[in-house]
Amino acid sequence: MFGLNDMYREREKLYMRCKRQQAKAGADRTLAKKQALEAISSTKGLLVSFALGLTTQCEAAHQSRRTLLKGIQTEVLGVISQYVAARFNPEPEQPQAKED
């Protein structure tokens, strides 16, 4: 009556299709997790991980070295400027007191 049986059948088909898609999605997620773990734990994955870690450490070391050199440069320039100032700008001589 009014096509209700056809609508019920269509609803059942859609429900079953939805359940199949959910099961397929679950299986795909599991497969993706498994493949990701295999890729990470493979020799290639470990080498890539090592290389990324090494580049990060090298960048940190480079930044630390740059900061250290900048600090040393500032200190050395300060010492040199004090030496030059003392060398080329002698203090005026004080008149000596007369001895009686």
Automatic annotation (TrEMBL):
Entry superkingdom: Bacteria
Descriptive protein name: Uncharacterized protein
